[in-house]
Write a structure and sequence with these properties.
CATH architecture of chain A: Orthogonal Bundle
Number of domains of chain A: 1
Number of strands of chain A: 0
Distance between the termini of chain A: 30 Å
Radius of gyration of chain B: 25 Å
Radius of gyration of chain A: 25 Å
Largest sheet of chain A: none
Structural class of chain B: alpha+beta
Oligomer: heterodimer
Largest sheet of chain B: 6 strands, mixed
């Protein structure tokens, strides 16, 4: 290397490296910003502006209205049931995929992604076809007093289906890069399978797990299509927040619709903030790990 | 505490690939043994089978004469040190070492004060006192290695198994740790098996070296024996540099192109063979001093010694010869070559 003399880089070089002219650069940045503004920031602002169109008082009233409260309660209930279940499913699936070799593994991975590629409306319709009054299992279920379609269980099922991939998708690549050595070490040291899982596996993936849970939760609360099909939109009974918003909007009660919508928007913003924070936190951990 | 480990015809198959093909080996209590071989020779698979991390497809592994196949990992009480150490990154050094004690069922678990006493004792043993609160990412590679060892020793293992214990360390640290491990073994006396692909490491550390090739055991013996009297051509080649000379053997004498080159072979050997000679077993003499002669083509530095490459007529590859004396030959000079020690193996 010693025979290579490093000449001071003339300023011309920097221009050559970044070959676009300042005009082009300004244009590109402008387009990106305009796009963001029109498609993201503007709608978000409109949501909040409309929500507060009739003032604070009206906003609070709109949210505390009986049906709105029922919708909020139902949404939270669905999320409280669906998210933990999908955490269990997701962790189990990720564990199976990352830690074991078995036949049909690739098929399993593709199946986990299925809800991403299927339109939510179709997944809703499938449940109607299976459990609806005229469906395959409908009559049998009805004779045993189980109601799925137009009831909480149907909404939970549809939500479960739609949000299934989130946790597994986050965990699989992370668990795969971690490998099995830590678990094997714990087992040789005498830990039981459960101790290994709780003390080694979970702490190792906690950030990606939390990240997956956040995304799963955001989707569970915001799901419209699948839930719309199975819920029957019985106002105050089977309407979740997105459904309730649509009903209000269709009835020209835009201030009320946007008031409830602002809550969902707020959820999205909080999710985004926590996600960003996690990513920043997570990157740190990855950097610490690569030092190994 | 240490037990004997007996492998009886142990085999392992991965699909169509036979990783280990019937290995039998008796390891004495307290012995330090190296499993040496190139990558893909089955040495790590063998080690993992001893640990119970890999199922055995054939044969038996016995600890003190007792079949281990039905024992759980916990009951085997194996101290296993992974190649990348597999330290628990979210736990401090002390917590890592204490892990094996803390996860015991309540009845067998030592008290908290007993655990912390044992942990500090182990930290002293591996010379890491004062680092207990650090996390694995905050200590050096050599320190991690020692933490992994302390963690494995904490459960008072019956057998200590180490997978490429020095593989991830730089040369200087590796040398220090080798010596340190030897001392530690002398003090603690655990039956210890370690896997390595580095012949120097195996020869320096182990009481006995087991050399594996393609899932088969080639030779098991002390370092001097395997080095000076390799049982197979593979062992000879793998353990150090060798010059190969095609020869015709008759009555214990080896002839290269009708020139007698070596006569120390067993008198009952005869026929076509290949003579394996290490560079230090070749001596440069006056051109008239030996019928086996050639010309020096190159002289290189090889660590602490210098090495001459001598071209012999009729031999496709130049011979590597260590130069012992201070005054070496000049390039182009004609020299005689005398073989002081050699092994013959069937040509192939």
């Amino acid at each position: 290397m010693s025979d290579i003399v490093v000449a001071p880089v003339p300023p011309v070089h920097t221009h050559r490296v970044r070959s676009e002219s300042p005009m082009v650069r300004a244009c590109l940045i402008g387009i990106a910003l305009a796009f963001l503004g029109v498609f993201l920031i503007l709608p978000l602002t409109v949501v909040f502006l409309e929500a507060f169109a009739n003032g604070w008082q009206a906003y609070i009233e709109n949210i505390l209205e009986t049906d709105a409260l029922a919708a909020i309660r139902l949404t939270l209930l669905v999320a409280i049931i669906a998210v933990p279940l999908n955490v269990i499913f997701g962790v189990a699936a990720a564990w199976a995929v990352a830690k074991f070799e078995f036949r049909g593994k690739n098929l399993l991975i593709s199946l986990i992604d299925l809800p991403f590629s299927v339109s939510p409306v179709i997944s809703g319709l499938v449940y109607v076809l299976l459990f609806g009054a005229q469906g395959y299992f409908g009559p049998w279920l009805k004779s045993h007093g189980v109601e799925i379609i137009f009831a909480l269980s149907g909404i939970v099922l549809a939500t479960l289906f739609v949000t299934f991939p989130f946790v597994a998708r986050e965990l699989i690549p992370h668990m795969q890069t971690l490998g099995n050595n830590d678990e094997e070490a714990a087992l040789t040291l005498g830990a039981s399978g459960w101790q290994t899982f709780v003390k080694i596996t979970l702490p190792n993936v906690k950030w990606s797990l939390l990240y997956g849970v956040l995304l799963c939760n955001a989707r569970a609360m915001g799901e419209f299509g699948a839930v719309a099909v199975v819920s029957g939109k019985i106002r105050g009974l089977t309407t979740t927040m997105p459904l309730h918003i649509e009903i209000l909007f269709n009835e020209y009660m835009s201030a009320a619709a946007f008031a409830v919508a602002s809550l969902l928007a707020l959820l999205a913003l909080v999710t985004l903030a926590v996600k960003t924070w996690l990513e920043w936190r997570f990157a740190d951990e990855i950097a610490a790990r690569s030092g190994h | 505490m240490s037990v004997s480990v007996t492998l009886e015809n142990v085999a392992k198959q991965y699909g169509a690939f036979a990783a280990v093909r019937g290995v039998s080996l008796a390891i004495q209590p307290g012995e330090l043994i190296a499993l040496l071989g190139p990558s893909g020779s089955g040495k790590t698979t063998l080690l993992r089978m001893m640990a119970g991390l890999e199922a055995i497809d054939g044969g038996n592994i016995l600890f003190d004469g007792i079949d281990t196949s039905r024992l759980s990992l916990r009951d085997r009480r194996i101290g296993f040190v992974f190649q990348n150490y597999a330290l628990f990154r979210h736990m401090s050094v002390a917590d890592n070492i204490a892990f094996g004690l803390k996860v015991r069922p309540r009845k067998e678990r030592p008290s908290a004060s007993e655990i912390s006493r044992r942990v500090s004792g182990l930290l002293e043993l591996v010379q890491l006192g004062g680092l207990e609160k650090r996390f694995p990412s905050q200590i050096s590679g050599g320190q991690r290695q020692r933490v992994a060892l302390a963690r494995a020793l904490a459960i008072e293992p019956r057998v200590l198994l180490l997978d490429e214990p020095f593989g991830a360390l730089d040369a200087k640290v590796r040398k220090d740790l080798r010596q340190w491990l030897r001392d530690l073994h002398r003090r603690t006396g655990h039956t210890t098996v370690f896997v390595t692909h580095d012949q120097e490491e195996a020869l320096e550390l182990a009481d006995r070296v087991a050399i594996l090739n393609k899932g088969l055991l080639e030779q098991v013996a002390g370092p001097d024996t395997v080095y000076d009297y390799p049982a197979t051509a593979f062992v000879c080649d793998f353990l150090g540099e060798t010059n190969r000379i095609p020869v015709e053997i008759a009555g214990g004498r080896a002839h290269f192109e009708n020139i007698p080159v070596y006569q120390g072979l067993p008198s009952n050997s005869h026929g076509k063979a290949e003579l394996f000679v290490r560079p230090q077993h070749l001596k440069l003499v006056e051109p008239g001093g030996s019928p086996f002669s050639g010309a020096v083509e190159l002289i290189r530095r090889h660590g602490s010694i210098r090495r001459a490459e001598v071209a012999i007529k009729g031999l496709p590859k130049r011979l590597d010869i260590d130069i012992v004396s201070q005054i070496g030959p000049a390039i182009g000079e004609s020299v005689g070559v005398r073989i002081t020690h050699a092994q013959a193996f069937p040509a192939g």
